[in-house]
Amino acid sequence: MWTGVWSGLTLHVRHLTEQDLPAIESVQRAVIAELAEATHYQALTTDEFQTLLEDRTIIGAFRDEELIAFRALLIPPIDEEHLGRDIGYPEQSLERIIYQEVTNVHPSFRGYRLQQHLGRLLMEAFSQDVRFDLVCATVAPFNIPSLKDKFALGLRIGALKPKYGGKWRYIFMKELHTDWQGDGFVTSVEMADTARQVRLLLDGWFGTGIRQQDETWYVDYEKQA
To answer: Most CB contacts within 10 A, which of 109, 135, 139, 148?
Structure first.
């Protein structure tokens, strides 16, 4: 899939298989062990990893034959929580949406921007996959690293709604086979101002970036060009 040097590391990136499952779970255990609050991490089960492997939606980066990071997309069930409904996607096309799922980087290899690198490779691979037209993801407001990751991969905010028991979440989206362009007329809103962001999104605006001014985080909104 990809072999080369990234941030000074010589890597081989490929789709992961059933034989890689022990290494995948080893990386996940290492990530959990380093967390100050492990309860905030949603670990995947063996069955969930096996589904990703069967669907060929998970890729991994190897250094000297050692798996050091992986990233996955998820083919979601068509259920009441489907993100396509949150952004007003046609009901008959929900099966053509795939989700950004999990990213794990071994603690020994943090700081190399492996999450971003794997994300771009995964998005490039699925831009050639005729089964899917759209990638979606959810991110909590003020989860700045995850927000930066989604914007860096070209996703934009299409909705802001209570999800998963009433927790506010940005719903990100990106077309896989076409390019979306904003009109360049930016309205910035404080990230804490949920009500105003919801109104803009319902009025056809999209979140296209974030920035910090003094101690305050803002979300930039644009309409489609």
So the answer is: 135
